[in-house]
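Practice problem: predict the structure.
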Amino acid sequence: MLQRYLLLIPVFACIYACDNTQATSKAKAITTSATSAADAVKGMVLVKGDVFMMGTDDPKSYLAERPAHQVKVHDFYIDATEVTNKQFKKFVDATGYKTVAERKPKWEDLKQQLPPGTAQIPDEQLVPGSMVFVAPDHPVSKANISNWWQWVPGADWQHPEGPGSNIEGRWDHPVVHVAWEDANAYAKWAGKRLPTEAEWEYAARGGLVEKRYAWGDDFTPGNKYMANTFQGSFPDNNDRADGYAITAPVASFPANGYGLYDMIGNVWEWTADWYDVDEYKSMAHQLTEDPKGPEKWHNPEDPYAIQRVTKGGSFLCANDYCINYRPSARRGTAFDSGASHIGFRCVKDAK
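Answer:
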């Protein structure tokens, strides 16, 4: 169900986002920003391809991550960090681009991802905005995500908590409140693309073989936090043992074996692939080379949402709620959804 507007419909206590992928803003023509070969890969790391075990057979994982299966990826470049507010501002300044969260949605687009017969949302409620994490001040049921997610008119990448907030002092934090089409537009402008799920997971593993985390099997080796996640009792009591309550500046935690930062935690990251909850079952007992994902999305638990794969978990992943701070973890996110905990990084083919 749509993460962005269902909170506006009393009969549903859920969340997801909407806007038209064909929507246009009064933007300048988006052209590639790189001016030289060196510029094109600045801030990127060359990852040498190989065969690896994608997914997991770990019984302490979610079903969509299983089974483990052999995949081969070829060489590619990947951003060392998540795209930051500073980098995204450069893109916006150059192109005039308006993100999904900054555009007024249309009911005609929204209803395509809602159950048939859903009552039309009044036009005055269809305003630009995004989903914002707001920690409750007391313990709440984890069965209802509306206990901590709020639809906030005026929330967007420049105003992460809504009107009155800004990103001053957060220029080196990952940009958030970006939908898939926003991330894809940035990638094209930068002369890059979004990673396939296979490329992303291979890079996140950092050369380790079938380890639970991107740094090994111990979540806090030597009692040291290796990623920005949620500690304490989710969602009301984050004790900030890792030093952060929300996003952290990129590269605040150690890099993985490939020199990549924040592949785990901080923000979920968009990939190029459609999300099919059963995709890995079709890839078992064979070697798949450079998979590009399924041809269509499929998620019976959220049958109306059109979903892309997001990876890596975020600052909201906790050991008592969302244990997605692992390379194999994956989830489907409505392609037109942005939120407080979703960002991205880019890749580029190695030629």
